[in-house]
Amino acid sequence: MLEAAVVAGLTSAGADVKLVGVLPTPAVAFLTGVYGADVGVMLSASHNPMPDNGVKLFARGGNKLPDDLEAEIEAEMDAGWTKPRPVGAAVGRVVVADDGAEQYVRHLLASSPTSLSGLKLVVDCANGAASTVASDLYRP
């Protein structure tokens, strides 16, 4: 529901959205840069009680937003949307990015100076976001 609400809000304001699915937070930061996105949005805190789930925003390039910009966004959200909403072709579009996990795994493998080849690993991601990429990352 939170994903649907965020996507609806962004597209109703005219933003195009690229859905990457369930991935770890660093993957969303990485893909924000890879896709040349203006902003990355991570819905997180699944390890917390539901009321504590949150939204993390990444700036262009995948960097953390400056605190003052985060505060400005929160203030605008608290005040409510006052700008005219786009209609017709100006409404944002949604695209599913099927290659996000694959790109992130390739990036991690290329970033590691040490091969894990020959090692036997036991990894328990507890069905967290990393569970979507761990098997591809550690597969021989």
What does this structure look like?
This protein has a two-stranded parallel sheet. A two-stranded antiparallel sheet has the order 2-3. With 140 residues, it is an alpha+beta fold. It has a single domain (2-138), classed as Alpha-D-Glucose-1,6-Bisphosphate, Chain A, domain 3 (3-Layer(aba) Sandwich). It is 39% helix and 13% strand.
Task: Tally the structural domains.
Answer: 1
Shape: elongated
**How many individual β-strands?**
4
Helix content: 25-40%
In short:
The protein has a single domain, classed as 3-Layer(aba) Sandwich (Alpha-D-Glucose-1,6-Bisphosphate, Chain A, domain 3), CATH 3.40.120.10. Helix content is 39%, strand content 13%.
How do the helices and strands line up, and which of them pair or pack?
Elements: H1 2-12, E1 17-19, H2 25-34, E2 39-44, E3 54-59, H3 67-79, E4 94-96, H4 100-111, H5 131-138
Parallel strand pairs: 1-4
Antiparallel strand pairs: 2-3
Helix pairs in contact: 4-5
Give the key terms:
5 helices, alpha+beta, 140 residues, 4 strands, 39% helix, Alpha-D-Glucose-1,6-Bisphosphate, Chain A, domain 3, two-stranded parallel sheet, two-stranded antiparallel sheet
